[in-house]
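Take a record:
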Amino acid sequence: MTSNRRHFAQLLASGGWALAAGPSLPAAGKSSDGWRIRKVEVLPVGIHFRSTFKIGIGQVGGKEKPGNYVMVRAETEDGHVGWGMTLTIPAWSYETLEAVVGTLRHHLAGLAIGRTPFELNAVKKQMDAMIRPAVSNGAPFAKSALEIAFLDLAGQIAGVPLHGLLGGKLHDTVELCYAVSIDSPSAMAEEVSRWPACRCFKVKVAGDADEDRKRLEAISLARPDIQVWLDANQSYQPIQLERFLDGLRDFDNIRCFEQPVRSEDWMGMRRAREKSPYPVAIDEGCFSSFDVARIAELRAADLVVLKVAKSGGVTNCYKSAVVAEAHGMGLLGSGLTDAGVSLIASVHLYSTLDLLLPPELNGPQFLADLLADDIELDGVHVKVPEKPGLGIRVPEERVRESLLQVG
């Protein structure tokens, strides 16, 4: 057992969750010793929603149901602090709040101790060896939070924004697409009218062809100027889908149809793609660059929905984008009601890509607090930060006031 692991095991045995590097840690790389990570904290937090958000597989959050997030605070020997973040939606992904917190505290966070932020590839390899991406997708939400903290630190130390670590931005601002929660047709029409600056909405549908058509009719009447990104969140059965697809031909504002069937039903996705009058996008059925390659070979989708959390981090998400483009598939960017840290990490990544539609990052739409300051948001346009790392400030006092107790 290395001294890193011994020290980590001693901390766990003592019940301490904030990990700290001991004086006997071996050298890890050739960079300044001051850049080595000496402490990692895993901070589960609750963030209240301003309104209810319901998708095809159930409610994501609401005023009575705060969202469960996990933040990672990584500190170097010389005092740099990097932040990472992920969220948990058990109806969407198997990684519950308890699973993400436990995975980070017991398995992954200790791998960062004694490393510098410029050893991310080695740490990623260790994370995949510790929790292998086989059978499941290998705890990508937990891994994503730790990677974002590494990238934040690397950018701060190098003096460049996160997008600079990816080759630099193509866009100075990122326009956002907001989501339309499943509700009555009139309520959904009212929602798109509330955001006049938003030109593209991800419209959620529930798997009921007649009701979903009424929802689309009401939305199109209320905002004939918008682009509609249709998202079923797996709510349709393939055999029941054709009548709904036939009805979509009457709408000329629909740009794509996302994940109409269950995530594991790739043949159902191919059937939907063959019948759909609009490009079909895959999301819950595609977590990694390997998934992208398989889906392209199966001709199961036209478009790939990128998400940092489901990919296991920014760099893996970028890999998925490269593989998708190499197979002639279009790119869409999205999130999972991300708060400030993970929202801005996505903004940095998406600023380096040419996406087909504005990315759906709806945290500013639904969340009462992003737990981040210095985000420049004008309506639905986010300015891509130019300060080093993530380029935002995390209000640590508010974070600690929002802590959740997790066993």
In short: The first helix runs from residue 3 to 14. The chain has a mean pLDDT of 91.
